[in-house]
TrEMBL record:
Cellular localisation: Cell membrane; Membrane
InterPro entries in UniProt: ExbB/TolQ_transport (IPR050790), MotA_ExbB_proton_chnl (IPR002898)
Ranges of residues in domain MotA/TolQ/ExbB proton channel: 101-221
A Pfam family matched in the record: MotA_ExbB
Name used for this protein in its record: MotA/TolQ/ExbB proton channel family protein
Membrane-related topology note: Multi-pass membrane protein
Gene Ontology terms describing biological process: protein import
GO cellular component: plasma membrane
Transmembrane segments: 54-73, 148-169, 189-212
Family to which this protein belongs: Belongs to the exbB/tolQ family.
């Protein structure tokens, strides 16, 4: 009788080697290997994207310079419009500035006298046109720069978008060349590209807001000044005016 064969030992599946975690140093390097601060994004950008950023930064600086200048101009013109309103109500007679220049222009026309062929309305209109001329000149001198604000506000985002598109194209070219689609490779180029759009918006948003604000402000101040001039000219036209012949004779005697 054959002895019983020993029982076969149960088969134990071979144990799998433990998964090796990614080295902490590699993860840290992927996370901090690229500086995404604004200055670093500018320095690392493609030359064309960098040129777009510089152009937009210059436009933003110019925008704020114009804004400060227009704030000062609007305050000055608003103060002159108040002086004209006070003069129209008879509260005060301006002694200097734009308001005094307007009064002098009207006074010159009044001393010039009324032509016999002129109606009272035509006489008043002639004085009003003469008084409006200094105001028109003052606003014409205050308005340069507003078209540049409108241009920056309209074009700035598209210039930034051009930089973004160019930067993304460069990022895709880098991905194709390296064959690596990891976030560490893609993120820096995308960040540089989007930074150009951000600068474009930073330049455009204040420009649009300032352009609209100053356009409305200058229009309202001009309308207030013209309303005061209308009252002033109407009051001057009601005064007894010398005839034009008498005015010329008086001017000739004064010249002698």
């Amino acid at each position: 009788m054959n002895p019983a064969a020993p029982a076969a030992a149960p088969s134990v599946p071979p144990s799998l080697p433990p998964a090796m975690p990614a080295p902490a140093t590699d993860l840290a390097h992927a996370a901090v290997g690229h500086d995404l601060s604004p200055l670093a994004l500018f320095l690392q950008a493609d030359p064309i994207v960098k040129g777009v950023m510089i152009l937009l930064l210059v436009a933003s600086i110019a925008c704020w310079g114009i804004i400060i200048e227009k704030i000062v101009a609007a305050r000055r013109l608003r103060a002159e419009a108040r002086k004209l309103a006070a003069a129209a109500s008879g509260a005060v007679t301006p002694e200097g500035g734009l308001a005094a220049e307007v009064i002098r222009a009207g006074a010159r026309e009044w001393h010039e006298g009324r032509d016999p062929a002129e109606s009272r309305g035509e006489y008043r209109e002639r004085m009003e046109l003469a008084m409006r001329a200094p105001v028109v000149s003052a606003f014409r001198a205050a308005e340069p720069g507003l078209p540049l604000l409108a241009t920056i506000g309209a074009v700035g985002p598209f210039v930034g978008l051009f930089g973004t598109v160019w930067g993304i194209m460069n990022s895709f070219s880098g991905i194709a060349a390296s064959g690596d689609t990891s976030l560490a490779v893609v993120a820096p180029g995308i960040a540089e590209a989007l930074f150009a759009t951000a600068i474009g918006l930073v330049a455009a948003i204040p420009s649009v807001m300032a352009y609209n604000r100053f356009t409305v402000a200058f229009t309202r101040i001009r309308q207030a000044a013209f309303a005061s001039i209308h009252e002033l000219s109407a009051g001057m036209a009601r005064r007894p005016a010398p005839s034009r012949a008498h005015a010329h004779a008086h001017a000739s005697r004064a010249a002698e």
